[in-house]
Write a structure and sequence with these properties.
- The complex is a heterodimer of chains A (402) and B (136).
- Chain A has 6 helices and 26 strands.
- Chain A has helices at 5-13, 24-40, 116-124, 295-301, 332-336, 355-370, and strands at residues 19-21, 43-45, 48-51, 56-60, 74-77, 80-82, 90-94, 129-134, 145-150, 157-165, 172-174, 181-183, 186-188, 195-197, 216-217, 220-223, 226-233, 256-261, 270-275, 279-287, 289-291, 309-314, 328-331, 339-342, 345-351, 381-382.
- In chain A, 16% of the residues lie in helices and 30% in strands.
- In chain A, the strands form 7 sheets. In chain A, strands 3, 4, 7, 10, 16, 17, 18, 19 and 20 form a 9-stranded antiparallel β-sheet that branches. Chain A has a 4-stranded antiparallel β-sheet with strand order 6-5-8-9.
- Chain A has 2 domains: 5-52 and 161-381, no CATH class; 56-160, no CATH class.
- With 136 residues, chain B is α+β, with helices and mostly antiparallel strands.
- Chain B has 2 domains: 2-74, 2-Layer Sandwich (Alpha-Beta Plaits); 78-135, Alpha-Beta Plaits (2-Layer Sandwich), CATH 3.30.70.20.
- Helices cover 16% and strands 34% of the residues of chain B.
- Chain B has helices at 20-28, 55-67, and strands at 2-11, 31-38, 45-54, 71-74, 78-81, 101-103, 110-112, 132-135.
- The longest helix of chain B is centred in the middle third of the chain and has 13 residues, at 55-67.
- Chain B is elongated, with a radius of gyration of 16 Å.
- The mean pLDDT of chain B is 86.
- The chains are: A alpha+beta (402), B alpha+beta (136).
- Chains A and B meet through strand 3, strand 19, strand 25 and helix 6 of A and loops of B.
- The complex binds iron/sulfur cluster (2 copies).
- Residues 79, 95-96, 98, 100-101, 117-123, 132 of chain B line the site of one iron/sulfur cluster.
- One iron/sulfur cluster binds next to loops of chain B.
Chain lengths: 402, 136
């Protein structure tokens, strides 16, 4: 059985495509077997909704009268600094940017109440945002100060561009020390007080396509409540990690860089987020459709939480010190039971990624496809795969001598 | 007059190994019901208690606790969840000491049981989208 994306799109156009979520496909395969399920199902939809720090957006603000060269100057949106080192009125806002006067971790743990992720959420919600610019002035761009309200609907372009999202698997964070630590994986209580994980597991996009056989550059996706595309492989994309026999990575592996029109997105799926003692970020909703082109691809999508393993990592020691040690391995099935056993101790688990919202994304995407509002795209190039020479290098420091 | 109140006691790390609670019962004649305790050596300890007894004993007992360096939070305030902001991630379930925030294993949604909430505020800052709000 071999299907093509074009054939699947034709079925979607006729309103005849069979679409199930990556959760539903598990039961379907158990009931009907891989062969029959692969014949019947055209698309499996995935979803994930979690904090994704490598997110951001760029904007073209429009030119003021007289003109101001924001480029090379300083600019703020609701007091959050934006990157101005591109052209005259294009700026980039990163999810983890925070106001210059944020107390940060001066009193530890800092709350990080407001940052770039929150500005993105407010813009998407249609709220006015304060733009403040100071520039150096040139003959063609004479103005030096600008203070104004802006609204997303008046911007020329507002584009979400996340350089690393949808991590294919992730660490389970624990704390072996005897004091509470505050990390990007949440609050970790001392002496294995809790174990925090952050993946939708069996619903997560890249865990359903472990070898990137269908997801590639140009794949149309659900992003932030709208439609977008896979732009590239994400930063730190690292296919050559330890994998189970079924090919599913047991460590953080592939990642996606994604892009989409912010104007079409929805604040329910882009939520400004504060990690106590760590920083501010953005919780992002992503869903990727997987065309069932063969039995092999369907078999990958039927992966279940019990068969996906993640590494337990000590965030008080080996993580900050860049040591490769892991405390152990655990399946998402065990993690989702609420308790795992680590070093002989029963440890309560918590998730940072919302599974119910991941289900909702997979269902929304399914509806869009069933209604014919969302057609699949053929990737224009594959993501780098296993044994293709990609390595995830640490920074090699070289002392700078005067 | 007899009263019964729910309070959160924050023990500074130096007092964790002292028999404070024992003395509260013995010297102040209070009945206590420990709703939740989380005490780690060398760390701040937290105990959520229901204290009942005569008003005069209760007041003396509270004074004793304060003198012993215990920070007391009365529960004259309320915590509410802003359901529009809660993403049901589940980060709070390991933070909440009373089980007021708990995962429903079927729906995988996080339920908030207001009757179990002691308004200790421990969940407020760790909640990533800041969905838990304090009202006075
Ligand atoms: S941590 Fe906050 S957002 Fe997450 S489930 Fe708890 S209340 Fe909801
Ligand atoms: S304030 Fe938060 S942590 Fe404290 S009992 Fe209520 S829900 Fe639980």
């Amino acid at each position: 059985m071999i299907k093509t994306i074009a054939e699947i799109n034709e079925k979607i156009g006729r309103g005849q495509a069979v679409v199930v979520t990556a959760e539903e496909v598990i039961g379907l395969v158990a009931k009907k077997g891989v062969e029959r399920a692969a014949r019947e199902v055209d698309v499996v939809t995935t979803g994930t909704f979690g904090p994704m720090c490598s997110s951001g957006a760029y904007f073209n603000l429009g030119h003021s009268k007289p003109r101001i060269k924001v480029g090379g100057g300083r600019a703020y949106l609701n007091d959050v600094p934006v990157y101005t080192g591109i052209a005259a009125v294009d700026v980039f806002l990163g999810a983890t940017a925070i106001p210059d006067d944020d107390p940060r971790n001066r009193i530890h743990p800092g709350p990080f109440n407001y940052g770039g992720g929150h500005v993105i959420e407010e813009l998407v919600a249609g709220k006015d945002v304060r733009l403040v610019v100071s520039a150096y002035g040139t003959d063609c761009y004479p103005r030096k100060r600008l203070e104004t309200w802006i609204n997303i609907k008046d911007l020329n372009e507002a584009v979400l561009f996340n350089v690393r999202n949808a991590y294919q698997n992730y660490n389970v964070a624990v704390n072996l020390s005897d004091k509470t630590i505050y990390t990007y994986m949440g609050v970790l209580k001392p002496k294995l007080g809790n174990a925090n994980y952050c993946s939708a597991g069996q619903l997560s996009p890249l865990l359903n396509d472990p070898y990137y056989k269908t997801i590639g550059i140009g794949t149309r996706i659900f992003i932030g409540g709208g439609m977008g595309y896979v732009a590239w492989h994400g930063t730190q994309h690292n296919p050559d990690v330890l994998r189970s026999d079924d090919g599913v990575p047991r460590r953080g592996a592939g990642t996606l860089a994604v892009i989409g029109d912010l104007k079409q997105m929805n604040p329910r799926w882009l939520v400004g987020t504060s990690m106590l003692g760590y920083g501010s970020t953005l919780t992002v909703g992503i869903g990727v459709p997987i065309p069932i082109l063969s039995e092999e691809i369907l078999r990958y999508t039927a992966v279940k939480d019990e068969d996906i393993f993640a590494a337990i990592v000590d965030y008080s020691g080996s993580y900050p010190q860049m040591s490769p040690d892991v405390v152990g391995e655990v399946s998402y099935g065990e993690l989702k039971s609420g308790r795992i056993s680590v070093k002989g101790k029963e440890v309560p688990t918590a998730s940072l990624s919302s599974y119910p919202r991941a289900v909702e994304i997979a269902n929304m995407l399914k509806d869009w496809i069933i209604k014919g509002e969302f057609l699949l795209t053929e990737p224009v190039a594959p993501l780098p795969g296993v044994k293709e020479g990609i390595t995830f290098k640490p920074l090699k420091e070289r002392p700078i001598e005067e | 007059m007899a009263i019964s109140k729910r309070v959160v006691l924050h023990f500074p790390s130096r007092s964790v190994d002292q028999p404070i609670i024992y003395r509260l019962v013995r010297d102040y004649n209070l009945v206590l019901n420990i709703l939740k305790a989380s005490v780690t050596p060398k760390e701040e300890g937290i105990m959520v208690l229901e204290l009942s007894g005569a008003r005069a004993d209760y007041d003396k007992g509270i004074r004793y606790l304060q003198e012993a360096g215990v920070r007391i939070q009365s529960l004259g305030q309320d915590i509410m969840r802003n359901d529009a902001r809660c993403t049901h991630c589940g980060a709070c379930v390991v933070i909440c000491p009373t089980g007021a925030l708990a995962l429903d294993p079927k729906t995988r949604m996080v339920d908030f049981y207001e009757d179990k909430c002691t308004a200790c505020e421990l969940c407020v800052l760790p909640c990533p989208p800041r969905a838990m709000e304090v009202y006075f």
